[in-house]
Design a protein that fits this description.
Length: 346
């Protein structure tokens, strides 16, 4: 073999190796998280007291700790090119189509799901679908969740997506959800990239009067292998209003703090029909980092801080009694969530 032919073969093998190293077609990830919640609960439990003698109650802090585990596997219909930018954004930048299976165990609830994503590389159209099923505890059966998505690459690295979600769940507040999403990847300067994404959602159902949810995430990529991100979400859910009548001799659970018009004497008030509206407010902010210790393996560390408030409001025409408020049994909950995720590509 001549020297020129040997050199040519060597260059071909080297190019082939580089090409192979810059693609992947399978992805497997495993995750573990721990959640620590501090809940304000009433000291006095559920002992009923006469309404005329009811007043403010003492609250105490209760700590609850839970963990969750999950695993997911994805198959991409064609090799994903990782040479276009940061490794974490490879599938998005290459407009890769895929199918994913996932399983999780959180709070003794098993969830099994499947999702698919098709992206037309040439024209930029996006179509997605998913289905998941939960095995509920205490003999409540199972809960199904289905979704459909349509979207479009409005620019080379910018997408807009619309999601429809259907919840068949005994404990779900909303029967249907509608979410609009936007995502953009860009470059500050050569070698320093960023990604910004946001969403706005609303919900509909027999248990929900109105629901507004929004969130935003920003990620910076100092190099191909490293990323730092921050995120924030906020949700305000107004549950369906229901009517009731509270006569003078009603008994109220001592776990509920009632604050009526102070000018109206409790022992002489005569109640007409009233309406009770429940509102849930939930906000979460988080930070995370992802590091690829080689071209095909990464680890992600994340921390989220959440705050959930539940409030009830009474309104109605009463004799001598104005509008009041109810504080639910768990009026406020703060949560700290730590999670780790390991990802392998091949």
């Amino acid at each position: 073999m001549t020297l020129s032919r040997a050199l040519t073969c060597t260059l071909c093998l080297t190019a082939s190796s580089v090409s192979f190293a810059n693609t992947f077609q399978y992805e497997i990830s495993g995750s573990y998280s721990e959640l620590r919640e501090e809940q304000l609960v009433p000291n006095s439990g559920f002992s009923p007291l006469p309404f005329s003698s009811f007043g403010p109650i003492e609250l105490t802090t209760q700590t609850v700790e839970t963990d969750s585990k999950g695993i997911a596997g994805s198959y991409f219909f064609s090799p994903v090119d990782t040479s276009r930018g940061p490794l974490a954004e490879a599938a998005f930048l290459d407009r890769a189509s895929s199918i994913t299976l996932n399983y999780s165990d959180a709070r003794n609830i098993d969830t099994l799901g499947i999702s698919g994503l098709y992206i037309n590389k040439e024209h930029g159209w996006i179509i997605g679908a998913s289905f998941s099923q939960q095995d509920l505890p205490f003999g409540f059966g199972s809960a199904d969740r289905k979704s459909l998505s349509v979207g479009y690459y409005v620019a080379t690295n910018t997408t807009i997506t619309l999601d429809w979600i259907d919840n068949d769940n005994l404990f779900s507040l909303a029967d249907e959800e509608y979410i609009a999403r936007v995502r953009h990847f860009g470059e500050f300067i050569s070698g320093l990239n960023y990604s910004v994404s946001g969403f706005f959602g609303t919900a509909d159902g027999n248990n929900v009067d109105s629901s507004d949810t929004y969130g935003i995430t920003a990620i910076v990529y100092p190099n191909r292998r490293l990323s730092f991100g921050v995120g924030y979400t906020d949700a305000e859910i107004k549950l369906a209003t229901f009517s009731s009548v509270i006569p003078d001799d009603s008994l109220i659970f001592s776990g509920i703090d009632v604050a009526f018009n102070p000018t109206a004497p409790f022992d002489t008030a005569t109640f007409s029909p009233i309406q009770i509206t429940n509102r849930i407010e939930n906000s979460t902010y988080g930070v995370f980092t992802r590091w690829f210790f080689n071209e095909m393996s990464s680890i992600t560390l994340a921390y989220d801080r959440s705050n959930r408030k539940s409030r009830s409001f009474i309104s109605g025409n009463t004799e001598g009694v104005g509008v009041g408020t109810l504080n639910s049994l768990n009026p406020e909950t703060d949560g700290d969530l730590w999670s780790i995720n390991v990802n392998l590509r091949f």
